Sequence to fold (571 residues):
Amino acid sequence: MAPENKKRSLWDRIQFCDPRILYALFAVVVIGFEMIQIKMPVPNPIWVGKLYDRIESLPPDKAVLIDCDYGAGNRGECEGQFKAVIQHLFARNIKFMVVTWTTNVEGQKLGRQVLDEVAKKMNKVDGEDYVMFQAIVNAGGVTLQSLAKDIHGFVVKDINGRDLNEIPMMKNFRSIADVSLIYRVAYSWGGIPWIGFVQSVYGTPLAAGSAGIESSTAYPYLDSGQLCGLLAGAAGAAAYEKRVMEAGIVNETGIGTKTVSVQSFATLFVVVSILISNFAMFMSKWQSKRGRA
Amino acid sequence: MSKFTGKIFWMILGVVVLGLAVWGEFRAGSIPAVAARVKDLDLPNLGVYRLQTWVAALSCIAVYSFLFKENPFYRFFEHALLGCATGYSCAVVMRQNLYSQWLVPIKKAIVNVSQNGWTGGDAATIALIFAGVIGLLWYFQYSKKYFWVSRIAMCISLGAGAGLAFKDTFNQLIPQITGTFKNVCPSEYVMPGATLLDRFYAGCENAIFVIGTVSVLMYFFFAFGNKNTIVKSSSKIGRWYLMIALGAFFGNTFMSRLSALIERVHFLMAEWLLISQM
Fold:
């Protein structure tokens, strides 16, 4: 509690300042660096490289299954992760299926927007190079088992209402045996039990793009080999974007790189604020001790 | 800052932001990036895009206004979001799942059976009717008298869920357990081609991992009192490991929330006010 009955010193005022002042300063920092856009060095995590190399070595006759389950709240991190990976897949002419779930219809809306935009730029055709469908997820395990055994039997139509049997690219992809990689991009990488019902049963490699919060829980699975790659938060997206750009697939980096640059300065602001407030606390204590003496 | 000067400050800020937004509207037609965005999003014209952007920007500001204090502007958009999200989910699920993946296949199968007789595939598809009936039993929860009927659906869900969870847990955790058996002194046979220094580093990493696993397990071992020196000291180490892990979790949490904020700020600056690069 703020000391009320005596005149507050500078150090006390720093400690008990209105949080709204901090919000305003924080907003100024974020807005300022968003406008200036200073390019910061992008980290190069080992697990991003592993996913990139995995996609580089995928056979062209098999498809990739992308589980697009992110929402508006984590778009800042996951959109970059999704976009960079599909750019890479398109560049390598690897066909992919994007599955979204009834529990998160936002995933379909946001994913489709990005997918259509990238496909248009890279001259790819819906139904020939990629397909998107929505699956019911009630008890996740049942859904995944059914999907793994018979994609056409489980998902009858794609999101445009076309019968899966009539979509050209889907003629060759009927079960998980025709899938060379599963990539889940979502707030929580473990929200859908791909490991328990598909990766461990059929041995299909699984990679994830996840929000920073949830990425911490993925490391034991990377260590045990159950996950073959991870894009963690905006930094993961930025690292993948950098690799895609270095490979000459795109001319510029995306939202992940922009986010990382602003994030670095915003984090610095928070660290400095913490240091100042702690320093103020010690100074205030020292002053009151000196006053008593 | 007195209440009066505070109000003046917020009014000036509001006028400046609104002025920038209006200025952005006048420039929107002549910015190539805006035209490219309209094309990328497959929108009919610039007006539709700007209208969408304004709605999104106002919603965004309304939600962030909660940081200042609870207000009716925030509450209106909060309720609008909930309503829109629920309505949108219902529409998508009904159109893409219930209609096209449940009703249409059943209808097709019934027509097939009536024309060509029973086949295994058609019978299985028609059996989906029972799934729908079981699902509908949940709605008995709204009746006090027939509440018990909903328990049938509940029992099926719980039974199936428990079985599936069992399988999921085993499949996830067995490789985790085997993954913890790490070699703290890797030989050349384990790491072929690695230098002595590489093997030493790998050994150190593995030792940190093994100590962490054992000590954290000790921390959560409540079967006997921690008066034993080995248990006591290892659980202390375990606590340190946990604190470091929780610190990392918190750092990641902050980063995630920050990314969400930056994404919105980027939208407001680049797409609404048109004062930063898109």
In short: The two ends of chain B are 36 Å apart (CA to CA). Chain B touches chain A through 53 residues (CB under 8 Å). Residues 3-69 of chain B form one domain.
